Each structure stands twice: as C-alpha cells, then as structure tokens.
Amino acid sequence: MTDARLAQLAADLPALRLLTDPSDLEHYGRDWTRRWTPAPLAIALPASVAEVQAVVRWANGHGVAIVPSGGRTGLSGGAVAAHGELVVSLERMNQLLAFDAVDRTLTVQAGMPLQAVQDAAKTHGLIYPVDFAARGSCSIGGNIATNAGGIRVIRYGNTREWIAGLTVVTGTGEVLELNRGLIKNSSGYDLRQLMIASEGTLGIVVEATLKLTDPPPPSQVMLLALPDMDALMRVFALFRARLALQAFEFFTDVALRHVLAHGAQRAIDGEHPYYVVTEFDAADERAQDAALAAFEEGVEQGWISDGVIAQSDAQATALWRLREGITEAVAPRRPYKNDVSVRISAVPDFLHAMQELLTREYPQFEVVWFGHIGDGNLHINVLTPPGMDDAAFIAQCEHVTKHLAVTLRQFGGSISAEHGIGLVKRAYLESTRSAAEIALMRGVRQVFDPNGILNPGKLFIPPPSPDGRH
To answer: Which part of the chain is the FAD-binding PCMH-type domain (predicted)?
Structure first.
C-alpha cells in the first residue's frame, strides 16, 4: 500500500478488502484470453453496494480507471487490466437477497455464480434457464455484462430475456435502480436493457432481479452423426418441425478428437465429419415416438449417418460432455477464437462461405468449430501450432478475421454473438454497427461515465492521443 492513492482508499474504506500481492494482480488482472500481461494497480473486493459506490467516487477523484470483474471467464479481453487499472471484483458480493414466489423472481448480488443461481431456483421448484459450460465459475454480473447466451437459447433466449431489474453503480458513483421487477413499464427509456451487454462501460451491475420459469418436461438427449455440412440445417429443420427442441448443438470431427483425447468417451463408432447433440421434450410415449420417427426419416433421406439416444441421466451427461468439453479440451493449444452470428435463415450460405474462407486462409492451422445452429451462433477456434510464436500466430489470425468481418457484413451478421467485444474485437465493431450507431454509443457512454474511468479501451478503439497513438 505504498501508493498514496491506495493508502487514501484504504483509509476512507477500512473494511474494504484490497489486494496487491503479485500473484493476486496476475490472477484478477486477466480473463481467458491470456493475450495481455496483467498489470493492475490493485484488486478491490467490495462487500456492499455502498463500498462499490465509494470506490467509484474515489477513482473519479484520483483519475484511476476501473475494470469490473466477475468470474473472468470471458473470451474477448473484457476483464483484462493491463495498464494500472483498479480491478473491482464482485466475488464477495455473491449472496441471494430475496425470492418472490408470486413474481417468481430471485434477487441476487452480481458476484453470485450462475450455478448457484440455478441451484437456488431449483429449491423453489423453478429454474433460471440460461445455461452454458462455464456455469460453475462465471458470475451473474458477467453474464449480464455480455448478454450471455449458451446452449439453450433456442428455447429460452439470451440473458436479456431473464432480467427483471438491475441495480447499477454508474461511472459517477450514482446508484440506479432500473425497472424494479416490473413486467409492464412504458415510462420512457429502458436503461436496464441498455446496461445489458454494455461490458462494464456504463456502470457496474451490483444486484439483479432474475425471472424464473417452470422446469421443462422430461427430456431426452440424442447424438447424431452427419455426413456433410448441408445436412446440419436439414436435420435442424426436420427436428424443429417434429419436436419441442431445448437445444441443438453441432461440432466437427476435429472438435471430437480433442474432447476424446481429453477424457470423454466415444458414443458413435466410426469417423463422421459432423455431429449434433440435441435435447428435446420427451414427456410421454408420443413425443418419444416422434423423435424416433424424425431420426428414421433423417436416415432415409441420407442426412443422418448414425445416432444414439441416452438411456439414463449419466448417458445424457456423457453425450453433452462431447459438446461442452470442447473449450476446455482445446485450451492448452491457446486457441484464437471468433464468436459470430447470422440469421438462422442465412446459416447454410454463411457456413459454406466460412468454410471456404477457413480452408483458403488457414491451410496450415488446425481449426475447431462448433456452435448453436438453432440461434445462428458459430464458434471458430484456431489452434496455435506447437512451437509457434504467439505474436506471429495472432497476427496471421487477425489478418483472416478482417476477411471474416467483411463476410459477416455481407450477411448482416455480428462479430460477437455472446462473448462481447472487449479488447479482442473492438477493431471489427464497424462490421456490425454503422458509424452513426457507434457515435451514439460513444455518446451514451459519455453520459454514464463522463470521466471515462469504467473499463477504458474496451468495446471502442480509444481516440488517438496528441502524439497520434491510441
């Protein structure tokens, strides 16, 4: 605490937990991107809204930038602190504050892990339906900051659909209570929705009121092997017409090889280029028969090469691991990631355009791709070759991403489907947003954070300094 600014913060807030140990700075100063060397000033771990408010006011007074921090499972550099920022981690603010049985809502602190939220909802016979593989480590605040989607968007939508109210500390230290859990509220701008997906650049989410819903009926999980890319959308259309889908996820043979090497068990014999894990309502014999009939029709049409249906919860978990284990399995290869989306109707043409681009531009690299076909979201992971310098690898990947951004613009897509823009994708924001939109977004940010202390450098490329550098 030799820094006079930190000494003042500690004196003003004696109960605030502050960390300055080098190992803590490294741990809290980065997210899953691992591209930037973490170099925060310190780590603040507030335990109350009042402490967050006081930290923001201190930061304004001392000209210190703040990086809000949740579970740091992001993949776009949104939680990176590499330039002397104060990381404000909400991990101590992880409590369930209230359950309302009539409104069917949970009010929680922003640092509560997604898994804990899901478990709390289940104790009341309800569910919080947003779900993805990082559920055990990601936080609700981070989910809100990026409008996280996941594996069940096809059924339940993104995080945005499940936020009934927010408490936010703005860049000036003002506390806003947004929407207050109302279902109908036509009293002007919905600032709650503005905060969602703002990546901590407008305010720090400190509390959230979450909508809950009934558990889905009993379901079944099926793994399908497909002969080619075109079969993906044909099988999706067939299953969506016949079944009540909860999820429809695809991955390639390359992805499967990595997951199997990471400890998962093979479920279908032989080699197939594409796979689908799908989950659907199967509450009665009629629904189960419909699933079997859809499968048989897919086989007859030549769209499905093989398949297996889970006969137990354990088998269902094993099938899902083949999809959910991909990110962890390829992590040691330090993948360069792109997370893109297009309209569902544009997926077939975009898949072909993307495959052509990847084959042409990445012939020397191993590419793992998978995605949420049912909502038009595709994940591309380019794996770092053994022994290759990270800087050279990233430079080559950035070159291809420029082509990808152009392709996305042609298809009316987005360079970020659910991971945010952060540092990684800010150069490509204009492929998704018009110049007029970006100008308005910058203006909104100026209103909520006039001194620019909240997550600076994220989402937008900063304006050049007098010496011409960003």
So the answer is: 36-215
